[in-house]
Design a protein that fits this description.
The structure holds 2 protein chains of 2 kinds. By secondary structure, chain A is an alpha+beta fold. Chain A has helices at 2-19, 67-80, 109-119, 149-156; strands at 39-42, 54-59, 85-90, 127-130, 143-145, 163-171, 177-186, 190-191, 194-202, 205-209, 216-221, 224-228, 235-236, 243-244, 248-257, 271-279, 286-293. The relative contact order of chain A is 0.20. Classes of the chains: A alpha+beta, B mainly beta.
């Protein structure tokens, strides 16, 4: 009797655990965002290639004492190499607990979804994904240690881009709603599946920040990731094939509304749009990125 | 007082002896010297062009004592071609270790675990060095004997991948009984359940793949897949019957190169009856979408969590073994019937028929096989037979059907063994495969000379006697010269080998291997 009871209990526990319904995995896109204006065509006059931009997705935190150093290193690199580096500050959960004396909560679901998509976990800070290239390190597959940022960026400076990205941002007339128009023009033949991701970032937000020296009550937080406008894994181009010939153009139009955040109001005048084209699948390499002001 | 003094050393000695442990071990080493041969396409990779040699070794130690059992194995791969026959694997370290303790009917094991549920259809962690399959579960394993007739086991862990682990988590539970039905029958029933939970990185890859699929084909993948099985062996007099049925929940699996969301099921049964000089065995298996892997991102022999029984009979004859049909985990319906008749100790007959289709009715494999063994001539053993084969090469070997139509082959064979004296013996094998498909017809001859208990010599040749010009420019010989020396528990082998490319199967699991040319040295030992 006792044996049968033990056996039945074990089976019942197992059955109960397998009945719990799973949530939809992060980043899954069952239906593509469609805009009827999206189009593709081929042009015969190929424009000059743009200078390639390197995108740095910096995992940072309010309570990360080395992160101000990371931000300074990025600023210095941008000064040293003007018009070559774009950056996004990703305030994912780790070291971003909202607590006094912070006024604003930089934590966002999009930030957490992004690091989970790139790395599968919230990385240490300050670490940065640089063009989402594989680090070859045992620590993190896609996030580089602070010490390696400069050397990696240095290595990427000679790279060119096989495509141009043209971006415009236009208010639609609805409150806080904008139409982002993108045009991706292939200046060289390309083989491989690609997608486009578009971010909304905000600069010049002053709030508390830990540092290794002192606590900074009015630190200027820049390039804060406020919204991932496209799906996290990116949005594929209309009617795209794996092979894109020189002169192939993809026009993509995305409408979005500036999000409402409980602790603050996003200032449109401080906002930028970053759009970038990247590979899909296990290789996530970013091919090229572009940035404009929201207004 | 003196008596006490005499007894004390005796007591200590007894205690010390009772607590002494037992240490045993085994060693296996292979060394390959690659000899470039462009005629048979043993070339154009680093093993043949640059490295020129490679090898692998396993040293296992087992200690039982003080109520514990500890096992550790050191693995080494130096330019080894075992994992991938065209590239080198190098690395060394602890290949497996485990520690077990039994107390009060509970056995606890931590470390690398080899075990299975039922026939292995929902879970099997095992090692097969021929194909470098080693999917030991690294984790915890508990076995509890509820009674003499009922035992339970549970386990959890991650599947081994050479010196690392696949990240998904695997859990399982198994209850197995052992009962008599009256005085003439006996059953061993069992139930088993497993669960696999994906890790986030594996799911990210799956999501990324799904996002790139046409919208109409996308689905919501699950982290968890559950599988359950129920099985029983019935032995009653001359009759035995094994039956197992398993189901699994929906998950993303790869079908025709694309991810699909499917559940799966499999039924497997074997039946045997033997009476005096006659016996018959029948087997059946029906498989539908029963893929069990750590994740759909793993392919070929990687990330396997289970093992499917093979219905076709595995033949030792070299030419026949060239077309062994592996178990299919997506779509298979297979039958095998085997009958034997042994009118005397010196004569036996065996016949078999195997029939395998996909669930859609596409023929995969047919075999009609017959053989007889005659021992009535003093010092001689005669063994001869023949096989008729139909083999769906395009499906089994993933080739274009127009280029590789189904193979129809007839293979007669003869084996003659002659006992020269108490220690020396000779064996001759002759085989001929007649076919117009694939590489065409083959002839095989082997002569083996044994001097018991130490020496074995063999020389053989496989010759493409009537090559199919569509795939082979000219006929080649594939010789093999083999020497083995056994001393006590040590065995040393050396061989010169030219081996044609083809499918290498072991225990129903197969993979393509390119041609091999060179020398092989092997050592096995146990202590």
């Amino acid at each position: 009797m006792k044996n049968k009871f033990i056996l039945f209990s074990a089976l019942a526990l197992w059955a109960l655990s397998s009945c719990t319904k799973e949530q939809v995995p992060s980043g899954l896109i069952l239906k593509d965002q469609k805009n009827t204006k999206d189009s593709t065509y081929v042009i015969s006059t190929i424009p000059a290639s743009q200078s390639k931009h390197i995108l740095v997705e910096e995992a940072t935190g309010v309570h990360c004492s080395n992160c101000p150093l990371g931000a300074k290193i990025l600023r210095d690199l941008k000064t040293q190499y003007p018009n070559k580096i774009l950056s996004v500050a990703v305030y994912s959960q780790f070291l971003n607990d909202f607590q006094a004396p912070s006024k604003y909560d930089f934590n966002s679901t999009d930030a957490m979804d992004l690091v989970m998509f790139i790395e599968g976990k919230d990385p240490s800070k300050p670490y940065a994904a640089i063009d989402r290239l594989n680090t070859g390190s045992a620590d993190f597959n896609y996030f580089f240690k602070l010490n390696n940022w400069a050397s990696k960026i240095d290595e990427l400076l000679v790279k060119t881009t096989p495509l141009n990205i043209e971006l415009t941002s236009t208010p639609t007339g609805e409150l806080n709603e904008y139409l982002i128009s993108t045009k991706t023009i292939f200046t060289e033949d390309w083989s491989g599946d690609l997608a486009m991701s578009i971010y909304l970032i905000e600069d010049h937000v002053k709030d508390y920040q830990d540092s290794s020296v002192v606590k900074i009550p009015d630190y200027e937080h820049n390039h804060i990731l406020r919204k991932i406008i496209t799906p996290v894994p990116g949005s594929t181009f209309k009617d795209a094939t794996t092979t894109k010939e020189k002169g192939r153009v993809y026009e993509k139009f995305v409408t979005f509304t500036i999000p409402t955040i409980p602790t603050t109001t996003i200032k449109k005048e401080n906002c930028h749009i970053i759009a970038f084209v990247h590979k899909t699948g296990t290789d996530k390499e970013i091919i090229h990125a572009q940035e404009i002001e929201l207004e | 007082m003196k008596r006490i003094l005499y007894v004390i050393p005796f007591i200590f000695s007894t205690i010390a002896n009772a607590q002494q442990g037992n240490l045993s071990g085994d060693l296996m080493m292979n060394v390959n010297f690659f000899q470039r041969d462009t005629n048979i396409k043993a070339s154009d990779n680093q093993l043949y062009d640059n490295f020129l040699s490679g090898g692998e070794g396993w040293l296992g130690l087992r200690y039982s004592g003080y109520g514990f059992t500890g096992v550790v194995r050191f693995d080494a791969f130096n330019n080894s071609n075992l994992q991938n026959p065209t590239s080198a694997l190098s690395g060394a370290g602890i290949g497996m270790f485990s520690l077990s303790k039994e107390f009060k009917k509970l056995t606890v094991t931590g470390g690398h675990i080899y075990d299975q549920i039922g026939s292995g259809m929902i879970f099997r962690a095992y090692e097969d060095r021929g194909l470098l399959i080693d999917n030991a579960l690294f984790g915890l394993h508990l076995r509890y004997r509820l009674s003499d007739k009922l035992s339970l086991k549970g386990f959890t862990g991650q599947s081994k991948n050479v010196f690392e682990r696949w990240q998904p988590i695997i859990k399982g539970f198994n209850a197995e009984g052992d009962f008599d039905l009256g005085s003439k029958a006996h059953i061993t029933p069992g139930i088993g359940i497993t669960n696999r939970t994906l890790d986030q990185a594996s799911m990210n890859n799956i999501v990324s793949n799904i996002n790139n699929m046409p919208e109409a084909e996308r689905f919501v993948p699950t982290y968890n897949v559950n599988a359950a099985t129920i099985y029983n062996t019935l032995n009653a007099g001359n009759f035995s019957w094994y039956l197992e049925g398993a189901i699994k929940s929906e998950e993303a699996i790869v079908i025709d190169g694309a991810l699909k969301n499917r559940n799966g099921n499999v039924v497997y049964s074997t039946f045997g009856y033997a009476l005096n000089k006659f016996g018959v065995n029948a087997s059946f298996k029906r498989t539908e979408n029963f893929v069990m892997r750590t994740s759909p991102n793993e392919i070929l022999l990687k990330g396997m969590v289970n093992w499917q029984p093979i219905i076709a009979q595995i033949r030792p004859q070299r030419l026949i073994a060239r077309y062994t049909p592996p178990s299919q985990d997506l779509s298979e319906e297979s039958y095998n019937l085997n009958a034997f008749y042994t009118p005397s100790e010196k004569l036996n007959f065996n016949g078999a028929y195997t029939h395998i289709n996909t669930l859609e009715g596409v023929p995969l494999y047919r075999e009609v096989f017959a053989e007889t063994e005659i021992r009535s001539v003093k010092n001689f053993l005669f063994h001869f037979g023949a096989q008729y084969l139909v083999y769906n090469q395009s499906l089994y070997q993933q080739k274009i059907e127009e280029e590789y139509p189904e193979i129809n082959a007839i293979t007669p064979f003869i084996e003659i063994g002659y006992k020269i004296d108490k220690k020396k013996s000779l064996r001759l094998e002759l085989q001929y495969m007649s076919t117009k498909q694939d590489y065409g017809s083959w002839a095989f001859a082997l002569l083996e000379f044994n001097i018991a208990p130490s020496w074995a010599f063999a020389v053989s040749d496989m010759y493409n006697v009537a090559p199919n010009k569509k795939h082979v420019k000219e006929a080649h010989h594939y010789p093999n010269i083999f020497v083995a020396y056994t001393k006590d528990s040590h065995r040393f082998t050396a061989q010169y080998v030219k081996q044609v490319d083809g499918i290498n199967c072991t225990g129903g699991v197969c993979r393509y291997e390119p041609a091999f040319s060179g020398f092989k040295i092997g050592i096995t030992s146990s202590f």
